């Protein structure tokens, strides 16, 4: 397995809880440790100074998540910080505010990704962030009354939602004798938006001068539904519906890993191998769809590349259907393992999987001939959608989007789980930072996933029959200790898919927060697009490989 230090990197410096205590000093009001990280409670007006020091002095350059929640006596924002160089080094910064004045200093000047996070926290919970550059709602209409995840929200109250006319946000600043601006709506119902996404775009001639992704059309209250479900049985069906087109088992693993660590549940090695194999099959299915739709966006070729991608994806779907019984909403993982063993006869399942793996190299060569080696495709993608590494980190970008900018970050290796650390494979990065590099990363990751699957098949074939334990003994009712908190993540097809959970002592989570990689990656779209042309904007959006079910949740 790749060590992560092949490109001249230095091992990250380990920062202890004592070091953090010294660094934060008297700005820390108390400790509030989580299962995954030390936690420090700070004043609402110290947010920027504490986060700046943690980033610049201690190396915590990745704001992975922001969780907002309301208690009976306070509101609370939790900034989950990690390191791109070593995500096992984590720290939680807890910012309480009073219930009568829920105002906290914005973190946006320190981490750009806090922009969207804090807008969501205001929208759903009701915390204001002083100094925020754009304090609008993000998922719900501006005219919405109340905050759906606050304790006093009346779910029975009818809402009157009005539609306001869209104004050109930069017209006064960009109108002169030699230029003129035009406001252009892209989406929400358009094939190139990859779902119900509305992009408010301002053009100066053919040049994009302002982009504002308008999300929330597919918001389904997934976090609240999970808070209403029991750990043991009722939450697991929901994750399939976040990234609903490709990453079902990867989504399920994010919840399983978090809940298993929260409740101290062990998973048998045999089940871990099955999980790893299934997850990589989902990764291939996701990347095939990403490649097919991106070719359609950029190349306009439906008859060859798109259909080839869907053809190969269908083969993967057939294998996953044999394994799980479903083609899309798998519901195959269980806390402590998986629902059942491999399909019988096992030999046929292994043969079908090996046939797919044997034919994959020729198909990848075919894609390279048709697409990555095509001159028109190269012109459309080379040096367009530039995302510099430090900018990607500021927006919390992960997955192929980050690795296409040379960021060597992959949780399968850097924060090992499942059976990955026992297998031979490499993390793929490209330094081009453009649309073309992101395509190349996904193409090469398909080959690395195939290596992992092949090793899993070898292991499963030789596994002794009397040791094929698919699930550990898990209590029927799980009630973790009250106020136990944890953030855990997996490397989904789009990047870091994380979940924060807080137990309130019952059999249901007190708070359930989903960290969507698509949410972060999409927030960086203006950085990729402003100053380029409309076709480049479409290519940049496609290269992010978003799914709005996961963006909105």
Poorly predicted sequence stretches spanning 5 or more consecutive residues: 2-8
Measured on Cα atoms, how large is the radius of gyration?
Answer: 23 Å
Number of domains: 2
Task: State the name of the first-level CATH class of the largest domain.
Answer: Mainly Alpha
Strand content: 15-25%
Report how far the terminal alpha carbons are from each other.
Answer: 33 Å
| CATH domain topology of the largest domain | Cytochrome-c3 Hydrogenase, chain B
List the total number of helices.
18
Strand order of the largest sheet: 1-2-5-4-3
Structure summary, number of beta strands: 15
**Assembly category:** single chain
CATH architecture of the largest domain: Orthogonal Bundle
**Sheet of most strands:** 5 strands, mixed
Query: What is the CATH H-level superfamily of the largest domain?
Result: Cytochrome-c3 Hydrogenase, chain B
| Overall average residue pLDDT | 88
| Helix proportion range | 25-40%
Class derived from helix and strand content: alpha+beta
Shape: globular
Catalytic activity: a quinone + NADH + 5 H(+)(in) = a quinol + NAD(+) + 4 H(+)(out)
Protein name: NADH-quinone oxidoreductase subunit NuoD
Domain NADH:ubiquinone oxidoreductase 30kDa subunit: 41-158
Subcellular location: Cell membrane
């Amino acid at each position: 397995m790749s060590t992560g230090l092949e490109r001249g990197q230095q091992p990250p410096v380990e920062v202890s809880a004592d070091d953090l205590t010294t660094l934060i000093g008297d700005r820390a009001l108390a400790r509030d440790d989580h299962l995954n990280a030390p936690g420090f409670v700070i004043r609402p007006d110290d947010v920027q100074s504490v986060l700046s020091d943690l980033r610049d002095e201690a190396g915590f350059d990745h704001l992975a998540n922001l969780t907002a929640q309301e208690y009976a006596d306070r509101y609370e924002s939790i900034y989950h910080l990690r390191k791109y160089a070593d995500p096992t080094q984590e720290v939680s910064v807890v910012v309480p505010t009073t219930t009568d004045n829920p105002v906290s200093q914005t973190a946006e000047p320190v981490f750009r990704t806090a922009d969207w996070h804090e807008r969501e926290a205001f929208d759903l919970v009701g915390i204001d962030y002083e100094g925020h550059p754009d304090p609008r709602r993000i998922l719900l209409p501006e005219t919405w009354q109340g905050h759906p995840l606050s304790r006093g929200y009346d779910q029975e109250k009818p809402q009157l939602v009005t539609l306001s006319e869209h104004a050109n946000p930069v017209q006064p600043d960009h109108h002169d004798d030699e230029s003129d601006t035009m406001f252009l709506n892209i989406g929400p119902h358009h094939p190139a938006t990859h779902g119900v996404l509305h992009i408010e775009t301002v053009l100066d001639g053919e040049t994009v001068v302002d982009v504002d992704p308008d999300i929330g059309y597919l918001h389904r209250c997934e976090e609240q539904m999970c808070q209403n479900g029991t750990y043991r049985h009722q939450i697991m069906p929901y994750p399939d519906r976040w990234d609903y087109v490709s990453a079902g088992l990867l989504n399920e693993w994010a919840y399983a890993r978090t809940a298993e660590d929260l409740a101290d549940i062990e998973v048998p090695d045999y089940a871990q191998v099955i999980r790893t194999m299934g997850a990589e099959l989902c990764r291939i299915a996701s990347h095939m769809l990403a490649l097919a739709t991106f070719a359609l966006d950029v190349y306009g070729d439906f008859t060859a590349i798109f259909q080839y991608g869907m053809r190969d994806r269908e083969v993967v779907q057939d294998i996953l259907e044999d394994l799980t019984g479903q083609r899309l909403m798998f519901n195959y993982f269980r806390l402590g393992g998986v629902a059942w063993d491999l399909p019988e006869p096992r030999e046929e399942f292994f043969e079908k999987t090996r046939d797919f793996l044997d034919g994959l190299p020729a198909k990848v060569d075919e894609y390279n001939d048709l697409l990555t080696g095509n001159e028109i495709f190269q012109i459309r993608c080379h040096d367009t959608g530039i995302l510099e590494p430090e900018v990607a980190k500021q927006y919390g970008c992960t997955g192929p989007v980050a690795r296409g900018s040379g960021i060597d970050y992959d949780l399968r290796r850097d924060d090992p789980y499942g059976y990955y650390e026992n297998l031979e494979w490499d993390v793929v990065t490209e330094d081009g930072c453009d649309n073309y590099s992101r395509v190349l990363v996904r193409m090469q990751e398909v080959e690395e996933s195939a290596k992992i699957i092949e090793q899993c098949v070898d292991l499963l074939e030789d596994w002794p029959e009397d040791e094929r334990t698919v699930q550990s003994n898990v209590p029927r009712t799980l009630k973790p200790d009250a106020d136990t908190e944890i953030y855990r993540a997996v490397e989904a097809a789009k990047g870091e898919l994380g979940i924060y959970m807080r137990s309130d002592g019952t059999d249901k989570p007190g708070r359930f927060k989903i960290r969507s990689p698509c949410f972060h990656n999409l927030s960086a779209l203006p950085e990729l697009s402003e100053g380029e042309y409309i076709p480049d904007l479409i290519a940049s959006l496609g290269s992010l490989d978003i799914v709005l079910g996961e963006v909105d949740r």
